[in-house]
Amino acid sequence: MSHMEQPSERPGDGIDPRGPNVPHFARLFAIWLLATAIVEPVLYFLVWPHIPPGTMTDAARGAQFDALVLTMTAAPVVIAVLEYYLYAMIVWHQKKGEPPEDGPPIWGHVGIQAGWIAITSAIVMGAFVFGTYELINTSGAGGGEGPSPIWTPAATKNMLTVQVIGQQWLWTYRYPQFGGFETPDLILPNHTKIAFHVTSLDVIHDFWAYQLGVKADANPNVDNVAFATTNETGRFTVRCDELCGIWHGAMYNYGYIVSPTAFYKWATSTEKKLAPLTKTLPKFAWTYNPSANGAGGGYYPSTDPFYEVYKYEYGSSGREGNLPAVHIKSFGWKPSQAGAHHVRER
Length: 346
Ligand SMILES: [Cu+2]
Prior knowledge:
Layout: H1 24-47, H2 58-91, H3 110-137, E1 160-167, E2 170-175, E3 181-183, E4 186-189, E5 193-200, E6 205-209, E7 214-218, E8 224-229, E9 234-240, E10 252-258, H4 260-280, H5 294-297, H6 305-314, H7 335-338
Parallel strand pairs: 1-5, 4-10
Antiparallel strand pairs: 1-2, 2-3, 5-8, 6-7, 6-9, 9-10
Helix pairs in contact: 1-2, 2-3
The structure holds copper (II) ion.
């Protein structure tokens, strides 16, 4: 800094630091370049590994990388804004005893206008292209793609199918490749492509396996598919992320990624252990019809004691509505338990 740039005692005495002869832009640019050159490597090397949701699957890794790119894109903009703010306060602030004075207007400045439009357009269009590519690149980026996914993984061989069933207020999982058993434990093998088929038995839930980078709405009568490839063993959290009633906040559990060997051992032994129970479940399907009192109890139709009554009255095709409770006694239920008011004798 030369002596010419030092603040003068009186306006007109030497060059005013706020005046047009001071290279403000060059200064601002140099400071901005230096700050950016320091901050960007810090983000890349030090911050990136700590960005959620981690690296347990390709989908999670993709989300982490996307967040890094957006952060590194935003950082120079944030630096420029803060720097200009501070610079203006220090260099252009009103001197004591001086009348308020506005700076020179910049309207009509072609360079600033063109630069503004060019830079903001480049950032927005870049984010658009990058975001679209990333969405497709990791097979839907861990989001639910509906019943017929557009972006499917390249290799669909050796893919583990896990059905995720939401109901008020818990998650259960069925493994159709292992006899269709159902369990509250979500166990996944490492280094495996997983196809999550997410559905609900009652209201709308949302399957959010946070560290897997997987998030898919669980709608009744909809098979919502999301993909992820496991990368690391460990525990992850499953939460319901769609307000679904009074115990929505308690609708979470933990899942585990284990070695393929450990998974196979677990899956085959669980299949065997649960076989008698699996027989009482409805046949594996991509969606299940909620029973008449499904929203209240989340029963599957065939295991719902009401359903037997329902079938008796309406046939298995059924229809919605309140059920007359007939023959409840033959299923071991008393009318008072079933909440029935009209017990008809046949
Ligand atoms: Cu829920």
